[in-house]
Amino acid sequence: MKYKISLFLLFVFVLNSCQNEDEKRRAENEKEAKKKEVIFNNINKAWTFIDEPINEISEQKVNSWNEWREFLKELGDKPRKTIGAFQKKSTALSKKAIALNDNIPVEFNVPAIKSRISILVTKVKMMDLFIHLNQIPTEKVTFLIGEINKELVSLERQMDNIYVKSKIPKEEGEEDFLKMLDTTRAIQGTVIEPVPGKKTDQNLPKVE
User: Fold this and answer.
1) Structural domain tally of the chain?
2) Is residue 104 in some structural domain?
3) Which domain holds residue 76?
């Protein structure tokens, strides 16, 4: 009889332990779900990119620079519903940003534009890195979204600046002056080989 009672009490203890573990696991899952929901809501709220050209020049390049057009299009396609969707979008944005280094229009293939593209790519890649961490640092992701927008504005303003400068008419005679400078530099850079001196025959008689 005592054995049956002990066995019954042991069964009740094990059953209560299992129920407690289930409740604890359920509470942890709910806590994690709420945490992910907060992260999703914060990122979803901050995820607003400047996907429209801010000036006429960058708008014109949408038609002729395929990589620029595809990048802006990717920026404008906002993910929905899950944090996983934002992670996929972030990876896609990183690839499109890297592609901006390809086929840069001739007039923009200069250090000022390349450096801004490099900074933009770095910040997009950083955002992609942070959003894929197990514990997503929401503040860093949202901060980088703002930084990416700043770099977009900087890049487009530089495009416009280059275009404006290219349209400034040269003053009369300036072009001839620049050509003359190039010619002068070319002459200065020319290496003139010394004329070898005539060898004297040691056997010839010397004139006193």
Assistant:
1) 1
2) yes
3) 11-166
| Domain membership flag for residue 27 | yes
How would you class 68 by CB atoms within 10 Å of its CB: exposed for 0-12, middle for 13-18, buried for 19 or more?
buried
Q: How confident is the model at residue 166 (pLDDT cuts 50, 70, 90)?
A: confident
Mark 85-95 as b/e (b = at least 16 C-beta within 10 Å). ebbebbeebbe
pLDDT at position 167 is 79
Asked if residue 171 belongs to a domain, the reply is: no
Residue with tokens 């007039």: 107
> Hey, is 91 helix, strand or coil?
helix
Q: Percent helix, strand, coil in the chain (nearest 5)?
A: 75, 0, 25
Taking 90 as the threshold, does the pLDDT of residue 98 lie above it? yes
Please check whether residue 195 lies inside any domain of the structure. Answer: no
Q: Is the distance from CB of 120 to CB of 99 less than 8 angstroms?
A: no
- CA 72/CA 154 separation, integer angstroms: 15
Contact 71, 50 (CB under 8 A): no
Longest dimension (CA), the chain: 150
Q: Any idea which of 33-42, 45-54, 82-91, 184-193 has the lowest mean pLDDT?
A: 184-193
What kind and span of H or E run contains 131? Answer: helix 111-131
Residue 175: C-alpha distances to residues 11, 105, 168, 184, 186 (Å): 99, 24, 13, 14, 17
**Which 8-state DSSP code applies to residue 52?**
S
Tell me whether residue 100 is exposed, middle or buried, using C-beta atoms within 10 angstroms of its C-beta: 0 to 12, 13 to 18, 19 or more: buried
